[in-house]
Amino acid sequence: MEQLYTIPVNEAFDADTECPICAMRKALEDGAIDFTMGPSYMEDDVRMETDRIGFCGNHIKLMYQNQNRLGLGLMLLTHMERTTKDLKKLSESGKSAGGLFKKKETSAVKEYIDRLESSCYICNRINRIFDRYIATVFYLYQKDPGFVQKFKSSKGFCISHYGLLYEEAAKELSGSKAEEFRRMLNQVYLDNMQRVRDDLEWFTDKFDYRYVNEPWKNSKDALIRSALKMNSVVVEEKK
After folding, report:
1. Across the strands, what pairs with 96?
2. For 66, which DSSP code?
3. Span 195-222, pLDDT tens digits
């Protein structure tokens, strides 16, 4: 199955980015939002799922920015009606979700809300394919020498996705191959973190009067790149 995803994975590693894994996930996110806000929101199976699962706060914001206000309004309306109906029923039942070994009972209402707040239709669509993308990274590492070179010459990864690749290596590769991959991953990650760290230091130095007439070098966007490296987020400058 991993062969199906070699094109988007290669495209992410071809891109000029501080974390190709973030680029993969962003592409999946954009696609999931476009799908959800397109004609599909009127399909019964999609609406049944969005009514039941809902959306996380981050994806509500991104869907609002999509400009299909009617589509978002209709999805939120039926999701709101479903949620209110469920909570009314649970609150009137007076049931708790406590078990024999629990010191403190949890109400069915609280359990329902906790489950709802940890679910998101968009996140689910992303994660179903994102896992295959990660498996494809290891598939290409074993099958395509050209990809290995792309990996080595990449700009590294954010902390989160460095950790993900480090951990998944033991699951996707044999013992010696996993260690080999981790050595290469560590080299790529640490070298590029040092590069961004040096750019960030120069960025801060530029606010010192002693360096005001010095060139910016590669540091003008160091703050943005550092945010991606450390927090896996793209920070957009105010216009």
Report:
1. 107
2. T
3. 999 999 999 999 999 999 999 999 999 9
Strand partners, 133: none
Question: Is the pLDDT reported for residue 100 higher than 50?
Answer: no
Residues listed for the chain: 239
| Cα gap 156→228, rounded to integer Å | 11
What CA–CA distances, in Å, run from 68 to 36, 53, 55, 75? 10, 20, 16, 11
Rg, C-alpha atoms of the chain: 23
Q: pTM for the full model?
A: 0.86
Closest residue by Cα to residue 9 from 141, 127, 121, 178:
141
Backbone φ and ψ of 74, nearest 5°: -65, -40
Q: Give the model confidence (pLDDT) of 24-43 as tens digits.
A: 999 999 999 999 999 988 99
CB 196 within 8 A of CB 225: yes
Q: At what angle do helices 69-93 and 20-37 cross, to 10 degrees?
A: 90
Alpha-carbon distances, residue 181 vs 3, 13, 167, 168 (angstroms): 20, 16, 11, 11
CA distance 30 to 37: 11
